[in-house]
Design brief:
elongated; 266 residues; mainly alpha
Length: 266
């Protein structure tokens, strides 16, 4: 019942796991075995193998944990030998993101640097939480009659639920002609390629002091902004269209804010 992308990731994970664990029976796996696996993935003895980042190692371990849980639930093993995976501790995420105070200065820079198509795609990522691929694939028929909601045609989770359309996105929509099924068509009525907004996002970010800002970090910025504005975990999940709340929480960045400020906002 797994979706194709999850099967591909599982195959990738076990391509890393099997050469290290080898023929060790599942019932004999221990936390020490997994710690050794984790160390080998991060610092491989084989010079032909590239070391993996802690976050990538945790993804591999997560699929191992899913496989063990499946084997136990389906009576392939009598007990799960590793109920809690010894995941690698991750350092605090220092990648750049925007907070509510950055939105207007950032968009002002975007308007100075980018063309109308880039301006619209970037607003859709930052203010609606769309991925770049989704922002570049905006379709006119995806908007509700009043233009207040939009249903992305593509989603990793398979969800096609309606999400709110920001007023800034609606404003630029009024300036775009409807000559194609795509809101921002590329050449020959195709779509713009991935990375179309990358340079504009990078330069606009640098202009306001956010170095190395990327299109995907605008999605994290959107999640962070709506969470700081009072949105609950379920609302953030629904906006980003994730299958689980835990996935959405990776996108919400820690913003220094006093408890009193939060109370005052409520």
């Amino acid at each position: 019942g797994a979706r194709p992308q999850h099967l591909e990731r599982a195959q990738y994970a076990f391509a890393k796991i099997i050469p290290v664990i080898g023929d060790t029976p599942v019932r004999r796996l221990t936390a020490a075995c997994v710690v050794a696996l984790r160390k080998t993935l991060q610092d491989p003895t084989n010079t032909d193998q590239r070391p993996m980042s802690p976050s990538s190692v945790n993804i591999v371990l997560r699929y191992l944990g899913v496989a063990l849980g499946w084997a136990y639930r389906n009576h392939r093993i009598v007990a799960n030998p590793i109920r809690e995976m010894p995941y690698e501790t991750l350092m605090e995420d220092n990648r750049p993101f925007l907070v509510i105070e950055d939105v207007i200065p950032f968009l002002q820079q975007v308007d100075l640097i980018g063309n109308l198509h880039q301006q619209q795609a970037i607003r859709a990522m930052l203010l609606m939480g769309l991925r770049e691929s989704e922002a570049l694939r905006l379709r006119w028929d995806g908007f509700s009659g009043d233009g207040d909601y939009y249903a992305p045609a593509r989603s990793k989770s398979g969800k096609a639920q309606m999400i709110p359309v920001a007023a800034e996105v609606q404003r630029i929509l009024e300036d775009l002609p409807r000559k194609s099924e795509w809101v921002i068509p590329g050449r020959a009525e195709s779509i713009h390629l991935k990375g179309y907004t990358r340079q504009v996002v990078k330069e606009a970010g640098e202009a306001i002091g956010k170095i190395n800002l990327t299109p995907h970090r605008l999605r994290a910025s959107c999640a962070t902004i709506v969470a700081a504005s009072g949105a609950g975990a379920h609302q953030v999940r629904d906006l980003l269209r994730h299958a689980s709340i835990s996935t959405s929480q990776y996108y919400v960045q820690k913003v220094p804010m006093s408890i009193k400020t939060l109370v005052d906002r409520s």
